[in-house]
Design brief:
about 5% helix, mainly beta, Maltoporin, Chain A, disordered N terminus
Length: about 550
């Protein structure tokens, strides 16, 4: 009776001993704790610095004996001592890469700032002879050729090359694109006057474009000139030169800061039959306009802010009269100084709406003209527009604004009106390209009582490739000249068709027919002209 409690107390102990004997036949397994996701541990590659490993859910504990187990060795850290005398397995080295990373010849030097993006305000390169204006004042005397698209940005993906595009000449860090056009034709009214006689014309048009190939910064320029001769000529002589050149540069101070620089020059004449011309001229007087600009731009994420200063001078040569005497034009010479502030926000990739405000002042060499008027003035212009850089679809800029100019002489009316500027190239498809051009500016006047002339021009050109080497063009143009201070208003119209045959990369044959009209509310100022042109373009 007294052994029953002893058996009861010994039963649990017996069960414990039996369980230990049953488990003794297997190898001992250490208890595995779940890894702590915040504990820094070395990665498998000892050359990498310690870092936090990414947390992963621990696997479920394995039932039964493990398939393989090596008892942990005890020793002195990383001295190499192993108390178990187990042979150490040879570690596998990192596989050597057979291919070397290609070196980038355009890579930026260490410590140099990354190249800044091109200013959204820089316009695409345009061909001065590809506009469709209706004989705007100071425009080149001959316009011939299809649309010249802006240069494509460099891309990692190679695009199909245009087999008829000029290759250019590599000279150091620049690529030069020289060209010359030889044009002949007939103009039914070269004097642009009612009842004038026609004449044959011959034009030589040299051209040179340059583009830098730097990884940082940019410098590009374009110089285009022409000389047109008429036979038979008239009085005043209509044979005259034309020159238009410009250069634009960008200095990348940092990834977000840039300096924009520019210079320009234009040599031309007033259009025949212009009301600004003197009576009894032997030839059209030439003028030269040259200037430059400097500004700074800063990007704040998607917002771009720029400030630019501009200076320009216009000089006229003396007029030669039919009696051999000369008349001075010093009262027409003036300097112009201005500043432009622009802010743009990249609303979508390649679409940047902007707001622009500008002010300028004009100071004449002679404060009083021969009629006793003080021509010095100040102007303010505001614009609202957008730039587009949708490569392959739409490229350029468009803006609409309002301008106002006040003159020192209280007898001269204040000049004010709407202004529009545009230079858009739209690739409708692989074969058709559309170009929209618009320009507005305030010109000086020599007419007594007239404050100035507000010139507005708009042009539309459509090119279609019947073949890659055969391009047809349709051009439409409209211009409006508003003489503030008198009731004169001139409307200019232009329509033309052209065809370009590309022989190879170096030669093209071009032909064009154009018809011009001017309709004015002043009696005797209307005219109509038809122009036939045939030319050869040689380029490199």
């Amino acid at each position: 009776m007294q052994r029953l409690p002893l058996l009861r107390s010994a039963a649990p102990r017996g069960l414990l001993v039996a369980a230990c004997v049953a488990l003794g036949g297997g190898d001992a397994v250490a208890q595995m704790a779940a890894p702590d996701p915040l504990t820094p541990r070395l990665s498998t590659d000892p050359r990498n610095p310690p870092r936090f490993q990414q947390f992963s859910r621990p696997a479920l504990a394995q039932l039964g004996p493990p398939l393989a187990f090596t008892p942990p060795a005890s020793g002195a850290g990383d001295t190499g001592f192993d108390s178990t005398n187990t042979r150490k397995a040879k570690g596998k080295g990192m596989p050597k890469s057979k291919s070397k990373a290609p070196s980038d010849v355009r890579a930026i030097a260490p410590g140099a700032a990354a190249p800044a993006t091109v200013s959204p305000y820089q316009k695409p390169v345009t061909n001065s002879g590809s506009g469709a204006y209706a004989a705007a004042p100071g425009s080149p005397p001959v316009e011939l050729g299809p649309i010249q698209r802006p240069p494509k940005k460099r891309k990692a993906r190679v695009e199909p090359d245009d087999p008829y595009a000029p290759l250019g000449l590599r000279t150091g860090a620049f690529t030069l694109y020289p060209a010359i056009e030889l044009i002949g034709g007939y103009d039914s009214n070269p004097a642009r006057a009612a009842g004038a006689k026609g004449a044959t014309l011959t034009t030589v048009v040299p051209e040179l474009r340059a583009q830098s190939n730097w990884s940082r910064h940019e410098l590009k320029g374009e110089l285009r000139g022409s000389y047109t001769g008429y036979s038979p000529d008239t009085s005043p002589t209509l044979s005259r030169p034309y020159l238009n050149g410009k250069a634009d540069g960008r200095v990348d101070v940092s990834k977000l800061t840039r300096i924009d620089l520019g210079t320009r020059v234009t040599v031309s004449t007033d259009n025949p039959n212009s009301p600004n011309l003197q009576a009894g001229l032997a030839k059209l007087p030439m003028f030269a306009t040259f200037g430059g600009s400097a500004g700074i731009g800063q990007k704040f994420n998607r917002f771009d802010l720029s400030l630019k200063g501009d200076a320009e001078r216009t000089v006229y040569q003396q007029s030669t009269l039919t009696d051999g005497s000369t008349a001075g034009n010093a009262f027409r010479n003036y300097n112009q100084y201005g500043a432009i502030l622009r802010g743009g926000y990249e609303l979508l990739p390649g679409v940047t709406p902007f707001v622009e405000v500008g002010t300028d002042a004009r100071r004449h060499d002679l404060p009083i003209d021969p009629f006793g008027f003080q021509r010095n003035s100040k102007g303010v212009t505001g614009k609202l527009g957008s730039t587009f850089d949708l490569r392959g679809t739409l490229t350029g800029e468009i803006a609409l604004g309002y301008t106002q100019r006040s003159y020192e002489d209280p007898r001269l009316d204040k000049l004010a009106g709407l202004m529009g500027n545009a230079s858009l190239i739209w690739a409708a498809n692989a074969l058709t390209t559309v170009k929209l051009s618009a320009n507005s500016n305030v010109g000086e006047s020599t007419i007594a009582g007239v404050s100035g002339v507000l010139y507005r021009d708009v042009g539309l050109q459509i090119d279609h490739s019947f073949r890659r080497w055969l391009i047809g063009s349709v051009k439409l143009g409209f211009g409006l000249d508003d003489y503030v201070g008198m009731s004169r208003e001139d409307k200019r119209f232009s329509a033309g068709v052209g065809l370009a045959y590309k022989l190879n990369r170096s030669a093209q044959i071009k032909g064009e027919f154009r018809r011009d009209w001017l309709r004015s509310n002043v009696t005797g100022a209307d005219y109509t002209a038809s122009v036939f042109l045939l030319g050869l373009r040689l380029q490199r």
